[in-house]
Recover the amino acids of this structure.
């Protein structure tokens, strides 16, 4: 399993690097990054799209046609459409999410940004996201791009991951700590 995961990571990195170089040469980095971010959200929100990407039953032509229809309907840049079509044609859709992450990391590295994963109990407004990004920027000392996820089980608060550092100020964790402390007293 670990060997398969590292093989997928290397594959995703190679595809992402090739797309990055091509997008850079065509001055389309921002457009491709926006498309890939949208596609990543679409994949996260759609069970059907995840099934399409991971299905060993669907053939090469079916996957290529389906992902082509999705990217065209979403109005993605021509380069993004061709890239996803190539990935489907090569039967690599199952690693598309890893390719997107690798591309966005390359872009963040180029811009000198750090990436932070913020998990909240409910969706954050644009102002709240800006405030969180600014607070993280002050803490780490460089530009930060944030990826916000929602996990209602947190009850309240945030969990922030920047690189290998994690700050957990969620209500769920605080209640768990309190519960452990109460067990120690009894």
């Amino acid at each position: 399993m670990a060997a398969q995961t590292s093989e997928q990571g290397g594959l995703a990195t190679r595809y992402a690097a090739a797309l990055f170089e091509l997008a850079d040469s065509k001055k389309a980095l921002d457009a491709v990054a926006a498309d890939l971010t949208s596609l990543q959200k679409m994949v996260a929100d759609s069970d059907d799209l995840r099934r399409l990407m991971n299905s060993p039953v669907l053939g090469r032509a079916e996957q290529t046609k389906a992902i082509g229809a999705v990217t065209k309907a979403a109005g993605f840049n021509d380069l993004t459409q061709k890239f996803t079509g190539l990935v489907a044609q090569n039967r690599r859709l199952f690693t598309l999410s890893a390719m997107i992450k690798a591309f966005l990391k390359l872009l963040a590295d180029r811009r000198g940004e750090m990436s932070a994963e913020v998990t909240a109990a409910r969706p954050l407004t644009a102002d709240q996201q800006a405030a969180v990004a600014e607070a993280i920027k002050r803490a780490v000392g460089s530009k930060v791009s944030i990826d916000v996820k929602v996990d209602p089980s947190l009850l309240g608060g945030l969990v922030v991951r920047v690189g290998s550092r994690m700050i957990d100020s969620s209500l769920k964790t605080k209640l768990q700590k309190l519960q452990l402390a109460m067990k120690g007293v009894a």
